Amino acid sequence: MKQKNHTALKWIINLAFVVISFIALFPILSLLLSSFRPSSELMRNGISLTFDPASLNLDNYTFIFTQAGDYWGWYWNSLAISAITIVLSLFFSSMVGYALALYDFKGRTFFFTLVLFILMVPFEILMLPLFQLMITMQLVNTYTAVILPAVVAPIAVFFFRQYALGLPKELMDAARIDGSTEYGIFFRIMLPLMTPSLAAMAILQGLGSWNNFLWPLVVLRSNDMFTLPIGLATLLTPYGNNYDLLIAGSVMTIVPIIILFIFFQRYFVAGLTVGGVKG
Amino acid sequence: MLPASKNESQDHYKHPRMNRKNQPGKRPQHDSAKKPNKIINFLNSKKVVPYVFVTPFILSFLLLSLYPTVKAIIMSFQSVLPGQVTFIGLENYSRVFNPTFMRALYNTSIYVLLTVVILVICPIILSVLLDSKFVKFKTIFRASLFVPALASTIVAGMVFRLMFGETDTAAANQFLGWFGISPVEWRYNAWSGMFLMVLLCSWKWMGVNILYFLAGLQNIPKELYEAAEMDGATIFQKFRFVTLPFLKPVTIFVTTISIINGFRMFEESFVFWEAGSPGNIGLTVVGYLYQQGIQQNDMGFGAAIGVILMLIIFIISFIQLILTGAFKKGDA
Question: Looking at residue A3, what is its pLDDT?
């Protein structure tokens, strides 16, 4: 009797999860499907639950690959900005996290408290003074303006510190005896050991930068400098005759990320749930 | 050529201390390398190295975090016009509490309340179920619930906007039509506008919050459940008296980040209405900051909004620190 109850419960719970997973994936699946539908129909009807299978075609993709020069400019901007952000922010924050974890020095607690404090300051309050700063430094509408604020990544410092605390300190002493410099120890021995945390943070910073919206919206001024989210948002007009570009372009923005996710799931999860390290 | 000379200078560094080898061939270079060695030795001492590691971060912090924060607070007491900055005391703050800002604050608060309730309660239940022995294909469910977090809010919001279009042919209205409900103009009513924003946010972050709670569940010792079972506890009693108390730290954490991110919300509103929504039904605090500070170029006023936002977030973070007992341990 009890056993039977459990089987029924099992079925209900599993079915519930199938439905919930489907709901989670539905917007992305319908985006994929809609990208094969005529854009004029999308503009008129929106995304509908019913569609004519015979109307599916590759026109939107033909358009984006042959005539949408702007779009690929945005794509390049997003790629370049994300890549530079990843390299710079990881370089700076891994050094700090490592030093905070493995060296005893005056001010260590102070620096760590400082990191925790920056973590609490919302970016929105920095935005206006930063914008002024960019105007004075004549950096408006450049990659530098988008990248600079992302270089200070307290969350990454926090994560690297946490990770480096678990590294074997004996390795450092051994390397010192072998005559390695402190910098050699970091770059040749400890940094390679930190690879998993570097991967997680690269994903956090990269995804954040790829999807970043408010700050690029403020500092990027011309169409040729837009990143993907900004560029796509300009197409969101009610008079849209650009829905072909909007829909196919959106797919090309998301799909590479999802493919990366399939291969590096572990690092995505570690990167996007950083805050939980502490809790 | 370069790597070789680098090795030599390293050898010299070892030479006096370890006294290992006689290296007559390298003597002449020793004297010429003496000066840089001193600097290298200094930079390489265990006392100095950590400061070298920390410096780039500190410099960027000073320029890109501390300076703007202080500047924003100062600006909030000023009237900032191109080429003309005047101190105006609390005028910005007295202007802030106008009906439009109150509307923005109201919208944001409702949004925070709804997203927190949804993004804490649902993930707790779902994570407990997902962790139970009943569910097969756990990894697949977990992964598909996580996928929305990868999408940019702008792209996802665009899809939602097309699904919740005004026409009766758009997905949401089609669905309602099957139950004989007439089409809704989703983006033009206060309630449905709020519904869209909350839905978009909940959809995006549900999977991430489930992962937080799943991680929290791993900390519960299995023996506790066995002990409770021996005492004859029902499933719900086990949930109430074993699971929930152990999830308290994660719950506090998830609640805090949900509140903070809720108050900082901007994109969810922008994607549905761009610059302005009918009757400001979608206006948020950050949206108002953007509108006044950037679009109207009234930076002093915008800074005042920013300072209020920062105060709200500090208060919430402070409450979190008290709840998690950060002040009890006595380590600063």
Answer: 57
Q: Which of A9, A25, A111 sits opposite B54 (nearest CB)?
A: A111
Residues of chain B numbered 78-107 and touching chain A (CB < 8 Å): none
Cβ A229–B160 below 8 Å, yes or no? Answer: no
Distance from CA of A66 to the nearest CA of B (A): 22
Contact call for residues A89 and A270 (beta carbons, < 8 A):
no
CA distance A254 to A210: 10
Contact A236 B264 (CB under 8 A): no
Closest-approach residue (CA) in chain A for B177: A49
Is residue B139 within a helix (H) or strand (E), and if so which, with residue range?
Answer: helix B138-146
Please check whether residue A224 is in contact with residue A73, taking contact to mean a CB–CB distance below 8 angstroms. yes
Q: Considering only CA atoms, which of A28, A71, A73, A91 is closest in space to residue A257? A: A28
- Find chain A residues with C-beta within 8 A of B155's C-beta: 31, 229, 232, 250, 253-254
A45:B211 CB<8 A:
no
Task: Look at residue B16 and tell me whether its pLDDT is greater than 90.
Answer: no
Cα–Cα–Cα angle for A85, B53, A113, rounded to 5 degrees: 85
A227 closest CA partner among A79, A89, A86: A79
CATH 1.10.3720.10 boundaries in chain B: 94-323
Assess whether pLDDT exceeds 60 at residue A257. yes
Residue of chain B with shortest Cα separation from A270: B211
Cα–Cα distances in Å, from A113 out to A99, A122, A154, A157? 14, 16, 11, 12
Fold entry, domain B94-323? MetI-like fold (1.10.3720)
Q: Where are the domains of chain A?
A: 2-62, 69-277
Q: How far is B243 from chain A (nearest CA, A)?
A: 16
Q: Report the greatest alpha carbon distance in chain B.
A: 97
**Cα gap A231→A225, rounded to integer Å:** 9
Query: Position B25: which residue type?
Result: G
In tens, the pLDDT along A64-115 reads 888 887 899 999 999 999 999 999 999 999 999 999 999 999 889 999 988 8
Q: Chain-wide mean pLDDT for chain B?
A: 85
Closest residue of chain A to B156, computed from CA coordinates = A27
CA angle A61, A66, A69 (to 5 degrees): 105
Contact call for B289 and A118, based on CB within 8 A: no
Q: Beta partners for B85?
A: B80
Question: Which residues of chain B does A218 touch, with a Cβ-Cβ cutoff of 8 Å?
Answer: 290, 294
Nearest chain A residue to B250, by CA? A279
| DSSP state, residue B243 | I
pLDDT one-digit tens code per residue, B157-203: 999 999 998 888 889 999 999 999 999 999 999 999 999 999 999 99
Burial class of residue B19 in the structure, from the number of CB atoms within 10 Å of its CB (0-12 exposed, 13-18 middle, 19+ buried):
exposed
Report yes or no: B293 and B112 within 8 Å, Cβ to Cβ.
Answer: no
**ipTM confidence score:** 0.91
Mean of pLDDT values over B275-296: 91
Span B21-52, pLDDT tens digits: 444 444 444 444 455 677 777 777 888 899 99
CATH of A69-277, one of 1.10.3720.10, 2.10.109.10, 2.30.40.10, 1.10.10.10: 1.10.3720.10
